[in-house]
Structures
1.
Amino acid sequence: MFYYRQKESDTAIEKTAQASVEIPLDDTVLPPTSGSVIGVALNDKALVKTLETSFHEKPHVQPPKTPVLYIKTDNTHIGYGAPIKVPTDKGPIYAGPSLGIVIGKQATRVSVENALDVIQGFTVVNEVSLAETSFYRPAVKAKCRDTFCPIGPWVIDKESVQNPNSLTIRTVINDQQVHETNTNQLIYSIEEVVSYISGFMTLEAGDIIIAGTPLRSAELEIKPGDNVMIDIQGVGRLSNPVEME
Amino acid sequence: MKSARILFNHETLHVTVNEKDQVVTQEGKVLEEGSFTWLPPCDGKIFVLAINYADHAAELSFKAPDEPLVFLKNNNSLIGHNQHTYRPDNVDYMHYECELVVVIGKQAKNVSVDDAMDYVGGYTVGNDYAIRDYLENYYRPNLRVKSRDTCTPIGPYLVDAKDVKDPHNLVLRTYINGELKQEGNTKDLVFNIPQLIAYLSDIMTLSPGDMIFTGTPEGLADVKSGDVITTEVEGVGILKNTIISETEYLKTINKQ
């Protein structure tokens, strides 16, 4: 089953489809939910490896003891096909391919074993970001610009995804594959992330967790005129043009 | 005018608050305190300023920052007036932070400092609790310290911007069980309200209902289960909140 939202005379209508081909991928498609979007930073093995030394230096002093979280505010959320608007005076801008975990029911203090019970399904997220020179302070400037979080095109129910902890994620810019990763590269698994967050933040149906983004290497840089597509095996394909802000 | 949101007979009502601080429904009926539950008076993004009073910066042994130090809270943490905030078991230091909250009144993007006050819809009182035991040096203050369930009381109501003559000269006070613990004045803000709106709206679009918690002055203290915490901002409101233990809290959520 696929869940999506479509704009009809300025109202968001929640819809379902049995097959993804039934979903019209035009400019009426909205992000598939309207909940909070919370991301897990530094949750990629290769990325953390590059930072290991700095984790022991000031101002960090020691590696993170718990998952590092951030918030993608509502102004960042856009749907399939909507333009990502990038500033030209803030340095390089990077795509951030990630699996989106979609919460299906209210969840407080869920165990790792029961985490899948509160998940409705999965979606594709492009967690766009400016370069981050430090992880010491919250990343509001880098991550909360308008249009910096394409989500969609739909939510696929969890029953249709065999193992969310082993999904290939490919990033394609202008029809050229530039990056490939896999959810098996996450440090904290899908279940661990949901359990940890719900331990102090009640999650609501429609909330989305960005499971983890890779190192923002030069291949992931996006520029006005580009088209960036993120494809997650068995989940979906999210495509957005890039425009000058 | 003062406006609020309450839960009455399982229904969310938009109400006004009269000069005697009584809740009045849209039909003009006065509701008795205790017959309803106060909800947060607004809904939107939650921005919070860290070290935005010079005296508080000194208290935390920080130099006041060169640009606003903003972090975000998620709306799971919001609760209304006269509700309970839980203190986790086995923590050493949980403290309140009394703050003037600026609530955005109309969509704002790339607003200048000169025009910024036109975008303020109103003001309310916020208490930005923190659990210092959980501080880590990544996206500090991290969400586990700040964005916790029940850790952001706000209200009781929203006061229209035009009814607050000078938001940059308001006394803030916090009492624990009636004893004055924290006192400051919004005239000591490092970054004032128009500067904060200009700064944020340069990064992103602000929407009606978005909240800017403008920071807290010096005078933090630990709070314990059973404490009644009163945070007040002169002319804006008096926000009360009771600390409960984690055990008590778990009983209430398991009942639901």
2.
Amino acid sequence: MELAINKSNTFTSTRNACKLCSPLGASLVFKGIEGCIPMIHGSQGCATYIRRYMISHYKEPVDIASSNFSEETTIYGGNKNFCTSIDNVRKMYNPAVIGIASTCLSETIGEDIPRLIKEYAQLHEGEQIPVFIHASTPSYQGSHMDGFHETVLSTVANLATEGATSKQINIFSGFISPADIRYIKEICDDFGVEYMVFPDYSDTLDNPHWKDYQLIPEGGTPVAQLKNAANAIASIEFGTIMNKVVSTSKSSAAHTAGEWLEKHHSVPNTRMPLPIGIEASDLFFKTLETISGIATPRHHARERGRLIDAYVDGHKYVFGKRAVVFGEEDMVLSMVAFLHEIGIETVLAGSGGESNSLKKEIDARTSGVYPNMIVMNNLDFETINEMVDELKPDIFIGNSKGYYIARRLKKPIVRIGFPIHDRFGAQRLHHIGYRGTQELFDRIVNALIEYKQEHSPVGYKYI
Amino acid sequence: MNAILKDRNSQITRAGADTKTIVCNKPSLAGAVSQRACVFCGSRVVLYPIADALHLIHGPIGCAAYTWDIRGAMSSGPEIHRMSFSTDLHEKDVVFGGEKKLEAALLELIDAYNPKAAFVYSTCIVGVIGDDIESICRKVQALKQIPVIPVHAPGFQGTKKDGYRAACEALEVLVGTGNRPAQEFSINILGDFNLAGELWILIDYYKRMGIHINATITGDGRVEDIANAHKAQLNVVQCSGSMMYLAKQMKEKYGIPFMKVSYFGIEDMSDALYEVATFFKNNDMLAKAKEIVRLEFARLMPELAVYKQALQGKKAAIYVGGSFKAISLIKALRLIGVQTVVVGSQTGTADEYEIIKQLCDEGTIIVDDSNPAELSAFVKETKADIFIGGVKERPIAYKIGLGFCDHNHERKEALAGYEGMLNFAKEIYATAMSPVWKFTK
């Protein structure tokens, strides 16, 4: 059996995509900067579709401006719309930062956004203008994750400035939930270290209730911390695949923010997988211990202990079960490794991401013990749907868009990551660290128990 | 900070004798964070419910991904429309052109899914890179012997409303190509999208009156029915913003008259049935319509009275896609004791905004193509209790403690017809009466 099957062997078209477009990733990162309004340089629909998609997941207002290209803009260039848009965003929101993402349209007609920003700044010399950050995110290049990491990189490359040495630890935490981000901050606080988590949309996309409408929601990584990133003692990056697709096609030597800071400002970078599972979480905590010289606080050590206790209590429910895992590459990779850790065999692991390194990475993380595992990059949901019957999975783990396949097979699905459009509380789900792993483990065990109970003719009250 | 940009002033007015006429039908202001989407969106939402057609989106992945299974438009049969097909253009396609990929995608998808027709949506960059979609469509149509219809929908070529027109133009290609025998008392239902099965509620009323449903465009839509749409005696048009163009074209080409109706609220629903019966000049039909209305009123009014009593004095803000629907909503809310204090739409027309001005209490804010900054300021100023809108308006309402009712295309509760009026009242009641608001004050 050919193990790394590529979708293109069968269908030219993409059927029910397992990915989103690049400007969505950029918008997420911009939402994680304090005082920032994202602006998409392209058609009105790009901003509105991305808003709708994110609102349905986060249940929060997501304001994204658009320069709203017209026919005229497309022919003669976007300069006028760009300036009007910036002016109007400033008048309405008075933002500290405007994060500008390009689109397939603006890139194809050759818009030079850095030049537009420069010209705008010249035109408004002497005024207090916002900080501008630009990310090149044409949707014909890679997926939303490429847009995400590209934007993390360009934000840091834009803002990081050398100054007095600092004790800051930079944590580039990848695409995780608001609850996950809050948990990382709690861990760092408990360690007592100075840190920056970027992007930090833990408040902006999961705010408490308001009395008055906040045009720019509270929260986000402060610009001061981003500037200070150049003077940090270390960077930690979650994700080993990240934005390989797009970055390797570009000439820039650094592909990620951590790499860039290491190269340009000698900030040592530790890249590690998204910390899901005990082994991966241990690596994160050990790295924090090494950098800070502080032992893991008791509170977290005990969470680890309870997780091991839970693994033991629940091991028989999960052992030998067969899982189908799908979503973003780094999420899929870490999920598969976690499932391996608890004795669940992944029979199919797939992503719409196009790095073509998912198979290699999974083999490395699972010591190559699953020779029959099908690993697919560049995959869509219909391909999963067509392959999945003969794989006889017991459980699906991924975002909510795979629900229809699980439904057809009448098998449980545990919803993780993004998007979750058909369940409540996605922004509060944990995925990473001991706490996130505990939550995932509980959910997986319960999904399997529930399935067994509902399909039992007896209807046991004890399982 | 200004909630209202100077350039937006002309698109905001108030109900009352001496207030200005609203300006509408304009492109959205750059940077204004409009709630509208684009031309592509307009065409996609209109054609989406045609269930036995292939909908292939030619462009990079975003446009297809964000519109996968996007509407609650139900089908009584095939469900090809619930799939998201894209040519997923990559950099090399942008450089060398996407025509070959489009042709290969069309051929393989038609073979795999056996659709009765294919719609090919062109997105932003397709026009820019110069793909000749028309000729690919002609070629594949000749090869596969099904209609393969280009939908010209680059996002930047106008507003969402222009997308409605692009959809109507695509439909026009189909209409008139069938030759089923015509039937007596037959109508086409235009502009109902069968959200949450609403179309089936309406069909039931019409059938009870002895009316034959010739084609439903596009709710629970079928290619063959649309091809035979010219065999109807009357086009009954709801959601006039999206379907008026097609109705007018069909009048011109085939001499089929049309009437505008609304199925929201019991007044408008009843008027629709009476008007259709009157059109056919058939006393028996009119008597049946009256009987339906009598029965439904008898069933509904006692229940609605309970809600009205509870809701009396509540204030509502409405922000929906089209102004025609807003008119019905104002009336439906009034029926259950709720006063409308803000009303707006993404793509309203001048005539309808004028009707709204007449209909609403003095001072009611009327707005075209609004945004979160304005809407949040308006509901604060007017002290609205409830917001009626779509997904993008929901968090604006909830975040500052207003009730909310989803009246957009993602809704899963039927809100049309008499039954729909009852559901609407129940939903407004549920959101207004929830005990959770005591924590938000």
